[in-house]
């Protein structure tokens, strides 16, 4: 590869820089795919921190405060960029110089990743991939930018770099003496700078580095948040929920289990890409109409008195008989207590909560403060909140539809007024307030099922969160309403299973309908309403074919 080519300094520098960018982008991408912590730039940074004398570290923290990490990483990137730029010109002359410097960087990167706590052999992969990609890019860009020219040898003047030409400019030029800097001499070969090749090549390199870097960062962020979630040890609550009585679950196949497993829990949100919120940098700000604005870190949240509560969450978009409802045991701290610490001012009637991705919900203050288990939750069914369900923290308020209460990835609560602020769904046609409507659903048999004649189980769930379900009735083919047997419910905040296990199914088509009565004495009516603006109503019915 030794060629003694030369290119204008700017072109050679650009080639070096772009090769360096490719190294960083590709290693970030591979780190995102393989192991986020093995990104060599950060590993070198961490190693540098460990190797820094305490006095210098204190100085850095004093000088740069919370930005010390950013300053350090920026410094590393600048050193990388300067070195990459510097290897351009020698590498153009002789590729081996460039490859040697890249190899040295590889060795430094590998040393850094392998000396990190918990390092394993795979940690070298991002560094090796990055260095290999940079070597490839360097060679490729030089070849693209400098093309051999055939033809008679140029006079020596033509080979002189631009700086020297001005000196030579005084000389008389013969017809063949063109001061053409792009034409280079190398041994007997001559190379011309192919500007188009250089531009296309370097542009391609920049795009490659950028795309790889962005994808890598996204993947690494995801990996880091899921690692933080897995590492989270849920503290024992000061107020644990009593173990669930066996009678809450009738254990009928095909009937929704009392506790919805996290993996089956419905998910509704506006997030195209689920927000990845690292609990180490998460905070919750409570501000607005309060006496003392509060900002909680995740550690603060976990140090507060913790409680568990079984709460059935439901979406306002759940059609009659629909699937957007689930029940879980939530672990968190009292939202009301946090608000009392902040001191809610007179006249405030709305909590405008905002998620990390800017979605908002408006929750009535009086509902949150009336003694129900309104939570800032970080645990769901014995594990850290799944990322899809709001990790690291979300609101859960019994009795309110999710769109007015259940903000996932919550980062901010503004205490305000309904006549001053509007939440995300309000201007989109949904009611500012959304108490959950008393409803019931038939899970068994399924609509359209073909059944054998004889004794058949009819079962389902009913809900009237924070009121409680008092009765469920079923009728067949518009006959007499019959009382279903109710499973137990630990509190009024969950759904309740129900069953009729002695229906004698006769051949032919049948319609089964259900209605619930809540503890206020209200019985569901047949009036059908759609989900807009504040939740569906009507009896769920299923049609079956027997025989
Ligand atoms: N950040 C955020 N939180 C949100 C939403 C959203 O779009 N973004 N949707 C809400 C709605 S409409 C519902 S029904 C519940 C659903 O919670 P889940 O996905 O955990 O079941 O989340 C609520 N919290
Ligand atoms: Mo919802």
Verbal overview:
It is a single chain. This protein is an alpha+beta fold and 547 residues long. The chain folds into three domains: 9-220, no CATH class; 262-428, Sulfite Oxidase, Chain A, domain 2, CATH 3.90.420.10; 439-546, Sandwich (Immunoglobulin-like), CATH 2.60.40. Helix content is 33%, strand content 24%. The protein has helices at 9-34, 40-51, 54-64, 68-93, 95-114, 124-145, 162-168, 195-231, 298-303, 335-342, 365-368; strands at residues 146-149, 183-186, 189-193, 283-288, 294-297, 306-314, 325-334, 350-355, 360-364, 375-380, 383-384, 394-396, 410-416, 439-444, 450-451, 454-463, 469-476, 482-483, 485-486, 496-505, 508-518, 540-546. A five-stranded mixed beta sheet has the order 5-4-13-8-9. A hairpin with a 5-residue loop joins strand 17 and strand 18 (482-483). The longest helix is centred in the middle third of the chain and has 37 residues, at 195-231. The termini are far apart. Mean pLDDT is 90; it is low at 154-187. It binds ligand MTE and molybdenum atom. Molybdenum atom is lined by residues 268, 315-317, 401-403.
């Amino acid at each position: 590869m030794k060629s003694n080519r030369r290119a204008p300094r700017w072109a050679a520098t650009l080639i070096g820089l772009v090769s360096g960018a490719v190294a960083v982008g590709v290693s970030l991408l591979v780190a995102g795919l393989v192991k986020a912590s093995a990104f060599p730039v950060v590993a070198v940074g961490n190693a540098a921190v460990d190797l820094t004398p305490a006095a210098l570290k204190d100085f850095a923290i004093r000088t740069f405060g919370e930005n010390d990490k950013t300053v350090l990483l920026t410094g590393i990137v600048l050193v990388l960029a300067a070195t990459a730029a510097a290897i351009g010109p020698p590498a153009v002359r002789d590729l081996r110089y460039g490859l040697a410097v890249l190899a040295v960087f590889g060795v430094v990167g590998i040393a850094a990743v392998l000396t990190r706590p918990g390092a394993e052999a795979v940690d070298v992969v991002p560094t090796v991939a990055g260095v290999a990609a940079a070597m490839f890019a360097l060679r490729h860009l030089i070849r693209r930018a400098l093309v051999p020219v055939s033809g008679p040898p140029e006079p020596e003047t033509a080979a002189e770099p631009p700086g020297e030409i001005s000196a030579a400019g005084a000389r008389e030029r013969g017809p063949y003496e063109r001061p053409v800097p792009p034409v280079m001499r190398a041994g007997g070969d001559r190379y011309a700078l192919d500007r188009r090749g250089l531009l296309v090549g370097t542009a391609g390199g920049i795009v490659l580095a950028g795309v790889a870097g962005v994808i890598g960062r996204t993947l690494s962020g995801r990996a880091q948040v899921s690692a933080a979630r897995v590492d989270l040890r849920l503290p024992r609550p000061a107020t644990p929920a009593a173990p669930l009585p066996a009678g809450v679950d009738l254990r009928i196949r095909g009937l929704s289990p009392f506790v919805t497993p996290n993996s089956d829990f419905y998910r509704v949100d506006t997030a195209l890409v689920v927000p990845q919120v690292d609990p180490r940098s998460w905070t919750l700000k409570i501000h607005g109409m309060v006496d003392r604005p509060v900002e909680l870190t995740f550690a603060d949240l976990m140090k507060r008195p913790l409680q568990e509560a079984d709460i059935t969450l439901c979406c306002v978009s759940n059609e009659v008989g629909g699937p957007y409802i689930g029940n879980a045991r939530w672990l968190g701290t009292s939202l009301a207590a946090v608000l009392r610490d902040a001191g809610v001012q007179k006249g405030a009637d709305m909590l405008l909560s905002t998620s990390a991705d800017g979605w908002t919900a408006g929750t009535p203050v009086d509902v949150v403060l009336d003694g129900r288990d309104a939570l800032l939750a970080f645990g769901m069914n014995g594990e850290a909140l799944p990322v899809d369900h709001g990790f690291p923290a979300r609101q859960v308020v019994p009795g309110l539809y999710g769109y007015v209460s259940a903000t996932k990835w919550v980062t901010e609560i503004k205490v305000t007024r309904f006549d001053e602020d509007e939440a995300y769904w309000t201007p989109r046609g949904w009611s500012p307030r959304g108490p959950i409507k008393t409803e019931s659903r038939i899970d068994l048999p399924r609509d359209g099922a073909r059944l054998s004649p004889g004794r058949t189980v009819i079962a389902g769930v009913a809900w009237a969160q924070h009121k409680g379900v008092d009765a469920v009735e079923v009728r067949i083919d518009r006959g007499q309403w019959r009382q279903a047997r109710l499973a137990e419910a630990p509190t009024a905040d969950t759904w309740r299973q129900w069953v009729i296990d002695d229906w004698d199914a006769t051949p032919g088509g049948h319609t089964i309908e259900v209605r619930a009565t809540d503890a206020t004495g209200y019985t569901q009516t047949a009036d059908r309403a759609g989900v807009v603006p504040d939740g569906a109503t009507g009896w769920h019915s299923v049609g079956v074919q027997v025989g």
